[in-house]
Amino acid sequence: MQERSVTVNQVPTFSDMNEQYVNLVEPLFERYSCRSGTTVVQQGQPAKYLYLILDGKVQVSYKPYDATVITVAHVEKGGLFGWSAVVGSGSYTSSVTAIEDLDTFRIHGDELRKLCGEHPEAGKEILERLANVASSRWTNSHEQVKSILVNAMAI
């Protein structure tokens, strides 16, 4: 896969953010790319990274202990996944598989939490921007899970 040169401030999530804040967070991001079909995040594995999609698409799935795998979302360019790493969860709560070739920026959750502790104003701004990206996906996931439960009750 050919990797194009992109900086954090060229990503819409951060494009109009205070330059000082961009300069704090940019060194913490690293590029991660993979081919379609790659499992990027495995449910139950240690939650290390939050991923921001530059290009491609992923499927987020959840495996309840007593049921089959449920697809909870598809996330595309501009979206993110791996939120468990930021909130301090010990492990990922879902699996994420690339369903198109994938190009991302990823940030280690521990490093982002450290930045937020050392630079509270910057951290607040960065987390707010990340939360805005994630919240749109959660709404869609809620509707999908609700639909599955309603259909199960009708059986």
Topology:
Elements: H1 19-25, E1 29-34, E2 39-41, E3 49-55, E4 57-62, E5 70-76, E6 80-81, H2 84-87, E7 95-98, E8 102-108, H3 109-118, H4 120-153
Antiparallel strand pairs: 1-8, 2-7, 3-6, 3-8, 4-5, 4-7
Helix pairs in contact: 1-4, 3-4
Structural write-up:
By secondary structure, the chain is α+β, with helices and mostly antiparallel strands. It is built from four helices and eight strands. The strands form two sheets. It has a four-stranded antiparallel β-sheet with strand order 1-8-3-6.
Please tag this protein with its features.
alpha+beta; 35% helix; globular; single chain; 4-stranded antiparallel sheet; 4 helices; 155 residues
Summarize the structure.
The chain has 155 residues and is of the alpha+beta class.
Distance between the termini: 46 Å
The portion of residues assigned to helices is 25-40%
Please list the strands of the largest sheet in the order they lie side by side: 1-8-3-6
Number of strands: 8
Radius of gyration: 16 Å
The succession of helices and strands, N to C, reads HEEEEEEHEEHH
The 3D shape can be described as globular
Number of helices: 4
Q: Overall pLDDT, averaged?
A: 83
Low-confidence stretches: none
Strand count, sense and barrel status of the largest sheet are:
4 strands, antiparallel
Going by helix content, strand content and strand pairing, the class is alpha+beta
Strand portion, in percent? 25-35%
